[in-house]
Amino acid sequence: MTDEAHRPDGDLSRQSTAIDNVTTETPGDAAAVPLIAPRDGTPAPTEDAAGLARAVSALSGARGPVAIDAERASGYRYSSRAYLVQLRRGDSGTVLLDPLPFGDLSGLAAAIADEEWVLHAASQDLPCLSEIGLRPTRLFDTELAARLAGYERVGLAALTESLLGYSLEKHHSAADWSTRPLPESWLTYAALDVELLVDLRNLLADELARQGKTEWAAEEFASLVTHGGAPPRVRPDPWRRTSGIHRVRGARALSRVRAMWYARDTVASRRDTAPGRVLADAALIAAAEMDPRDERALLLLPGFGGRSIRRLATTWLSALDEARTLPNDQLPVPVANDGPPPAHRWAERDPAAAARLARARGAVNAIAAEHNLPPENLITPDTVRRVVWEPPAEPTIEAVGAALRSLGARPWQVSLVAGSIADALSIPEPTARADDDAAGTTRTGAQGVATGRSELVVVGPRGRPAGLCSRLASRPGQENQDDAGEFGRSGHLVVALE
Predict the structure, then answer these.
(1) Which of 1, 257, 319, 338: disulfide with 288, CB 3.0–4.6 Å?
(2) How far is it, in rounded angstroms, from Cα 446 to Cα 464?
(3) pLDDT value for 172
(4) How many whole angstroms separate alpha carbon 466 and alpha carbon 463?
């Protein structure tokens, strides 16, 4: 849908830094009002027990949802902990909480636990909030709500400008929030992030209701409450995600990547520094490829010129020595994939599955367009791939629905897509026929693959699907002189490419 912009009522000056009332009047072509300071001024951070008690009292005595946000130091620190928590409820004013001095935030948690929390991109903040004991029982995610409502630009600044008529500065979003003391301009930025969050929530809730999507959103928010605070899943062999590892050839070289990765991770964890600030991935890959055997050769590699990196030369050389002397039976081996292969490999590994995936994707995209929301919010691409790669033996709506639910799909999603995915899976599997005359396919001498009565599958060498066109045939057996091919006895139109 097209964003409907809104701006505040009254005689608010374009240079004003205060906010009195927010309405949903359309601003037309008027420029957004720069929002440069909170209406109550920028509060000082809460850093001691007395300040925490005042904050808890203020939040407990206010009414309505609690706007909440958290700032981390991603890209600077090893951990993903919260370094600042912003809270605002009703007329209580904004609280900027420094969580570092506090070992127990149970009083704050009790004050807001039973209220609706309003967050933007909740999945990003819930893990670090949960880590300090702050867990919601109800929430409203303004970013997710905007996605479900069909807005194209769903960032906080974009929504605040298009719906409320105010522009927010976002130039501190990637700052090192572990800095102490925090600069005044950063504190102002942080306070403004929750200044209008409840107003934004109310507008989006109205829009979801207008579109009949309130229950969809409720199911999504409930899922976030249940699962959103869980720590990130620990991946097996995390070193395999090193950027540039695809260039490394051979098990011995991969063992050098592994040894360097764990050496870097140990240093990063000890220093509480982001691993990329200890040693860049590009430098790690260069060392794994070149296998330097002394400090001089190591320091000549790209990425090893910094003073702090040079001081760790012994660490890096020891890791390379370890990999060099590793017995062959301890070298890295290919890992079994716990899911389907990347989609771009399906045509080669299983052309029939590739055709199923194309049909299922097409169905999901059509349903998403019909309901004005992104396909990935209708159903995750990974869920579709897993169901299509290993479909139920009998792909009924019930069986497909059960498979979707087992992968975490919510009831509203299952009700919308299960039938169409079941249809995509129910079309007979492709049949390959090498003999043109027997198959009744093209006269080019190439192999044809047929997938359904009303579909065209364009196949390349070795039967790999090169394209899919739907509903080209009005009925089985009918010739279509406009297409480069003809129907055989199966009623399928097949085009083969040399």
Answers:
(1) 257
(2) 12
(3) 84
(4) 9
Structure-token match 């065209």, residue found: 456
DSSP 276-287: HHHS-HHHHHHH
**Local structure of 31: helix, strand or coil:** coil
Whether the CA torsion 67, 71, 74, 79 is positive or negative: it is: negative
Mean predicted confidence (pLDDT) in 69-75: 96
pTM for the whole structure? 0.80
φ, ψ dihedrals at 17, nearest 5°: -110, 5
Condensed to tens digits (0 to 9), the pLDDT of residues 448-461 reads: 343 433 344 443 33
Give 325-345 as a DSSP string. T--GGGS--PPPPSSPPPGGG
Q: At what angle do helices 411-426 and 381-389 cross, to 10 degrees?
A: 40
The dihedral sign for the CA sequence 167, 169, 174, 175: negative
Q: Nearest CA to 344 among 385, 387, 395?
A: 385
Show the tokens assigned to 314: 């012994």
Taking the alpha carbons of 475, 476, 480, 485 in that order, is the dihedral positive or negative?
Answer: positive
Residues 211 and 173: their CA atoms lie apart, in Å, by: 32
State phi, psi for 443 to the nearest 5 degrees. -100, 20
Going by C-beta distance under 8 Å and a sequence separation of 6 or more, which residues neighbour residue 418?
Answer: 397, 400, 401, 404
The pair of structure tokens assigned to 442 is: 């093209």
Sequence-distant (6+) residues with CB within 8 A of 95 are 43, 46, 55, 58, 59, 86, 87, 88
